[in-house]
Write a structure and sequence with these properties.
By secondary structure, this protein is an alpha/beta fold. It has a domain of 127 residues. 33% of the residues lie in helices and 23% in strands. The strands form 3 sheets. A 15-stranded parallel sheet has the order 1-2-5-6-7-8-9-10-11-12-13-15-17-18-19. The chain has a two-stranded antiparallel ribbon with strand order 3-4. Strands 14-16 form a two-stranded parallel ribbon. Strand 6, helix 4 and strand 7 form a beta-alpha-beta unit. Helix 2 packs parallel to helix 3 and helix 7 runs parallel beside helix 8. The longest helix is centred in the first third of the chain and has 13 residues. The two termini are 31 Å apart. InterPro entries: LRR_dom_sf.
């Protein structure tokens, strides 16, 4: 198939499939490949029954699959999930110089395999075209120590890490932090999972060398960890290139007190001088406290809502310089969020966030015609948001029944109302 660009492989195949694929790989025009070697049985060509042997027990098939991947000259995006024999990683590492892969995603369990973990790192770090790496799952300590030692050689710009098993592994956590801070090309970092204190302390110590511009953090256990929360705050405040920050879940009080003290200390460096965009979950705002002047340079703020829009919650964050606010559905929300109460108190809540707001956007929320009318009528009445010029509604469940109010607002020239009609999208499910 000379026009095939995207291919997804699920399940298991006979060894002949992998050997033939390897021999013909150079003629392939595939650019995006997803391989899911899950717990699906393999049917041998000469057998009428199912065999339970998977690729983790099949060295030849695993080796040929690695050759198939590395020989494809047009392959740019690769996703790999499932169990494979160690020969897959060793072969991939030995042939990586021929790969043109730019985006790589792994979801693997290599916790007990030292050699495979080490070979996987060499495969990753030797790829000269790799720009984006997603690494989820469990890995041996050898992966983290090796990747730390090779960090300076990688050209990765986007890194997504999610590991649930590092909270009791100090050396692996330390080495991961070193890897992150050593990478000279890393611009965007997404950090999920749970980590040992050594990760946060090392990150804090080496933060000034990081070139990260966009950081997203989610860790469910920090609310009960004062030292880790303190060092995370230091890590954020010390990064001199950070422009865009996303905070999810909740944090210990020491996160906020450390942020505040670093911002107010005359001896400290200029904390977060480049940070202009901030995204927070409403769950994060439940425990939000004053952070001093850390976020004073933020111009654009986004609040992600899981279930209901509660004005008492969203007004807990104070960003005196913010000019743009977006309230949108959380990506994991099973249903679009609506208002906890009538939105008549919205102007006062937004004033608490920032008196400098110029533009407010509602996106993928369950607002509907009646609440949209209330919001617009409220903002047509006198309020203290003197700079507010634009209100946008994107897929908030309205229809033409609210057109008269929109026209009246635009005619008043007090503010501009923009509406993109449609039902709210469940971002992760639709």
């Amino acid at each position: 198939m000379t026009h095939l660009k995207d291919l997804t492989l699920r399940g298991q195949y006979h060894d002949d499939f992998y050997s033939t694929s390897s021999s013909m790989a150079s003629s392939s025009k595939i650019e995006t490949l997803e391989i899911y070697s899950a717990d699906l049985p393999e049917r041998h060509l000469s057998e009428s029954h199912f065999s339970e042997r998977h690729l983790s027990e099949r060295p030849s098939a695993s080796r040929d699959l690695a050759q198939f991947i590395c020989k494809m000259t047009h392959l740019k995006n690769l996703t790999i999930k499932g169990p494979y024999h160690d020969d897959f990683y060793l072969t991939a590492s030995s042939m990586v110089s021929s790969a043109k892969i730019e985006t790589l995603k792994f979801l693997l369990d290599l916790f007990e395999s030292r050699s495979a973990s080490r070979a996987l790192v060499q495969f990753i770090c030797k790829m000269t075209h790799l720009k984006k790496l997603t690494l989820h799952g469990q890995y041996h300590d050898a992966l983290y120590s090796t990747v730390s030692s090779m960090a300076l050689s990688v050209k990765i710009e986007n890194l997504d890490i999610d590991s649930v098993d590092l909270n009791e592994r100090p050396f692996a956590s330390r080495d991961l932090a070193q890897f992150i801070c050593k990478m000279t090309h890393l611009k965007n970092l997404t950090l999920g999972g749970q980590y040992h204190y050594a990760f946060y302390s090392t990150s804090s110590l080496k933060a000034s060398s990081a070139k990260i511009e966009t950081l997203e953090i989610y860790s469910a256990d920090l609310i009960e960890r004062p030292l880790a929360s303190r060092d995370l705050a230091q890590f954020i405040c010390k990064m001199t290139h950070l422009k865009n920050l996303t905070l999810k879940s909740q944090y210990h009080d020491d996160f906020y007190s450390t942020s505040s003290s670093m911002a107010s200390s005359a001896k400290s460096c200029n904390t977060s001088p480049t940070l202009t965009e901030l995204t927070v979950e409403d769950d994060t705002l439940e425990g939000w406290q004053d952070c001093g002047s850390v976020f004073d340079n933020v111009k654009r703020v986004t609040i992600q809502v899981r279930s209901t829009i509660n004005c008492d919650v969203i007004q807990r964050i104070h960003l005196p310089g913010a000019t743009e606010l977006t309230i949108q559905a959380d990506v994991y929300a099973p249903q679009p969020a609506g208002f906890h109460e009538e939105p008549t108190s919205l102007p006062n809540a937004l004033l608490m966030i920032s008196p400098q707001l110029v533009k407010v956007t509602f996106s993928d929320l369950d607002i509907g015609n009646s609440n949209m009318e209330l919001i617009l009528q409220t903002f047509r009445s006198p309020h203290n948001l003197k700079h507010l010029k634009i209100i946008r509604f994107i897929r908030c469940g309205s229809d033409e029944g609210v057109d008269d109010v929109i026209l009246a607002c635009n005619k008043d020239q007090v503010m501009e109302v923009e509406v993109e009609r449609g039902k709210p999208r469940r971002l992760l499910f639709d």
